[in-house]
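ok so for the tutorial part 2 we go from a plain amino acid sequence to predicted structure tokens. step 1 is just haveing the sequence, like this:
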Amino acid sequence: MTSELIDKPFPQFSLTELYDESELLTEQMMRGRVSLINVFGSWCVACNVEHPVLMDIAKNNEVRLIGMDWRDERDKAKRWLAQRGDPYTKVIFDDESVLAIKLGVTGAPESFITDKMGNIRYKHVGVITPDIWRETLLPIVETLKAE
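step 2 — the prediction. this is what the tokens look like for a chain of 147 residues:
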């Protein structure tokens, strides 16, 4: 999907980690490795459909997965991930849409792929299905990893 953020740095932010409120996460976490940032919420019906695919991606260690828990309650999100499994290396807690607004998020799930420099290279709106992962997103990840 097109976005004015493509090829631009991931927006600046400072938000807490879902599990550790004392840990502040910033855009610096996107640097050094290709990452897939996945916007989700415990309230999101489509996120239930997508979640097993994210678990497979995490199991295969194909890309660093960063979660962005959006417009949610911390306890509900923790419970949701505890029930389904947590595929993320870190989870940004964005209950007030601070980062979502900067990213132009209009719904969940949405996902962003960043390169090693922390630039947004691709935006996917909607559920990541096995076919979308294999045919669209994984080739982008592999190309960026080779850069």
